[in-house]
Design brief:
It is built from ten helices and eight strands. With 342 residues, the protein is α/β, with parallel strands linked by helices. The chain folds into two domains: 258 residues, Alpha-Beta Complex (Spore Coat Polysaccharide Biosynthesis Protein SpsA, Chain A); 74 residues. It has an eight-stranded mixed sheet with strand order 1-4-3-2-5-7-6-8, sandwiched between helices. Strand 3, helix 2 and strand 4 form a beta-alpha-beta unit. It is elongated, with a radius of gyration of 25 Å. The two termini are 34 Å apart.
């Protein structure tokens, strides 16, 4: 997805925008920096949006903070965008982003994250299976000093065979592969520090792996039980067809996490293999030179030189990667604990 694929009805934040963390903000909510951004992707959810708006107002207004709600129309084919436009015209706290076609939940979520201006970001679904009333609990938990709060649906209202069983298997598999034990990776209701989530690369179905991806940044993750309701309007956008994409993304995540945690080991390991192949090539070249002097030794020697050069290159890159990794770890540790309440 590129910039031409996103339309928004409001200007985005600029580098000159006020720092939401600075002290001395005015007491008027309208004049204060935005403290909370709620990001909600929506695809063919025209029937749910009116109810969603009412529930969000009931939850967010009593918090007494300056907030925005970013509603992302993920290329809907019904009247979703029209309903969103009505909501945005009705309440200035609500902003709309329209994608030119249906990209999927993760790209839609990324569009909202990129445009968000709050110091805390909350993501949730538009179908009201997530309960907006739980947002306050997520914020309270986040203010205990965590960088991320992940919701897990304690009484999930979905079909057991087609939704709950695959989710149970996927959660256990993800925990086993990534080493990050999250009870419900598929729950969209999450809260993040803005400076954290904006550093996490997301694509494909990667929204399920945000806690695992964030683990490389040394963040503190909390899990809280949240309510879950049966879908009342529209049709579910999830099915068994997503399984292969989740499995593929899991392989990618495992590779990225392993490299991020031990870059030197992976690079030097590959360098050792290349070095061994180079030595084998030298041995084959010497044998060929003695046994068959017709010139086949040149091929083996050329291969040996290539593998030797690769081993040297990977070894040097490994040293550089180790230096960057340790420097980044020091910076990350220094930033942990930089947290202030509302």
């Amino acid at each position: 997805m590129n910039a031409q694929d996103v339309e928004t009805n409001l200007d985005c934040a600029t580098p000159d925008d006020p720092d939401p963390f600075r002290s001395g903000a005015t007491t008027s909510r309208a004049d204060r920096p935005i403290e909370l951004s709620v990001i909600i992707p929506a695809f063919n959810e025209e029937e749910s949006l009116g109810y969603l708006y009412d529930r969000l107002i009931e939850t967010l207004d009593p918090l007494g903070i300056n907030y925005e709600v970013i509603l992302v129309d993920d290329g809907s084919s019904d009247r979703t965008f029209d309903e969103l436009s009505i909501i945005a015209a009705r309440n200035p706290h609500f902003r709309i982003i329209k994608l030119r076609r249906n990209y999927g939940q993760t790209p839609a979520m990324v569009a909202g994250i990129d445009h968000a201006r709050g110091r805390v970001l909350v993501t949730m679904d538009a179908d009201l299976q997530n309960d907006p009333a739980d947002i306050g609990m997520l914020l309270e938990t986040l203010n205990e000093g965590h960088d991320m709060v992940v919701g897990w649906r304690i009484n999930r209202q979905d079909k057991w065979l087609s939704r709950k069983l695959p989710s149970l298997i996927a959660n256990r598999l993800i925990a086993k592969v990534t080493g990050v034990n999250i009870r419900d990776n598929g729950c969209t209701l999450k809260a993040f520090r803005s400076d954290l989530i904006k550093r996490v690369p997301l694509y494909g179905e990667m929204h399920r792996f945000i806690p695992a991806m964030s683990s490389t940044l040394g963040c503190s993750v909390a899990q809280v039980g949240v309510r879950h309701h049966a879908r009342q309007h529209g049709e579910s956008k999830y099915g068994l067809g997503r399984i292969y994409r989740v499995v593929f993304d899991l392989v990618v995540i495992k590779t990225l996490l392993s490299f991020a945690q031990r870059p030197t080991a992976y690079l030097t390991g590959t360098a050792v293999i290349a070095g061994m192949l180079s030595i084998i090539g030298i041995g084959a070249a010497l044998y060929a030179a003695l046994a068959t002097p017709e010139g086949s030794a040149v091929v083996y020697m050329s291969s040996s030189i290539l593998f030797g050069s690769l081993a040297l290159f990977l070894g040097l890159i490994g040293i550089i990667a180790a230096t960057i990794h340790h420097a980044n770890a020091d910076v990350t540790q220094a930033r942990i604990g930089e947290w202030s309440e509302w």
